[in-house]
């Protein structure tokens, strides 16, 4: 039976699909300890990734936001007192920016994005930490705290390793292994086909009351004049 004090990484997922993906990437899953506090409202998946013992929890169904996440973290830290690092891992939303002379800005569907501090800011902006003023640029009014030094050092290490690795970062192989292990996940969790990754120009407005399940090509059209033309990447899936 695992000891609750042996777990050092806390992993929070906001929605079910993020939780499923996290569980699928565990190298091994551990049984739930019998001595969890009775007032802990979380449901956990325990396991290991590499040499790290990981605790994964998700927000209650249909409940999102800071207050729900805070409650989950509070119970997790009480039940697993030696957690050293907390991670919020999941699906990100954002606006892709394509600049022909700046390939590092070219975000595609299925990319994994890791933010880092720059110019004294944390690298993660809370959605309500800013304001729009007519005819002016978006004004940032606050940002979240920076990650701990250990994680910032890890980012530098991973970045240098990727730069020196002529065979890519190995993510595609890891994802393929997981999908082979859980073939039922392929339909909804494999990387989208490249032909579906269309970047519409900012002037194209997606209908507010779209039919459920309808594609952007159906709703907005696939006229080339509405799309930002982007060249294929040298290797599919390479950031």
UniProtKB/TrEMBL annotation:
SUPFAM superfamilies: Purine and uridine phosphorylases. GO terms for biological process: nucleoside metabolic process. GO terms for molecular function: catalytic activity. PANTHER family: AAA+ ATPASE DOMAIN-CONTAINING PROTEIN-RELATED, ATP/GTP-BINDING PROTEIN-RELATED. This is Nucleoside phosphorylase domain-containing protein. It comes from Arthrobotrys musiformis.
